[in-house]
Amino acid sequence: ELQRFLPGMRGFQSVAADWRNDVAVAKVDAESDGDFVLVYGAAHGPGLISLLRKRGFVEVDREWHTAFST
To answer: In this structure, are residues 36 and 28 in contact, taking their beta carbons and an 8 Å threshold?
Structure first.
């Protein structure tokens, strides 16, 4: 709905998602011993997975859980 009123919002959302992904992966780099859990919305999945693969991580499992719904 908001997209209709703010057409430029999609670009902002993409930049914001990329930034949040970078921050999350930097935290993994700084504090993880190799095992970790990231809890993020589905839209972050592809970007996070790409960044982690570039660092040599391999996905061994994926589970989706609904944290909240309307």
So the answer is: yes
Q: Are 45 and 21 in contact (CB under 8 A)?
A: no
24/41 Cα distance (integer angstroms): 12
Name residues whose C-beta falls within 8 Å of residue 51's C-beta, 6 or more positions apart in sequence: 21, 22, 25
Residues present in the chain in total: 70
> Is the confidence at residue 6, as pLDDT, over 60?
no
Pick the closest to residue 63 from 43, 33, 37, 28 (CA basis): 37
Residue whose token pair is 């997209």: 3
pTM above 0.85, yes or no: no
SS3 66: coil
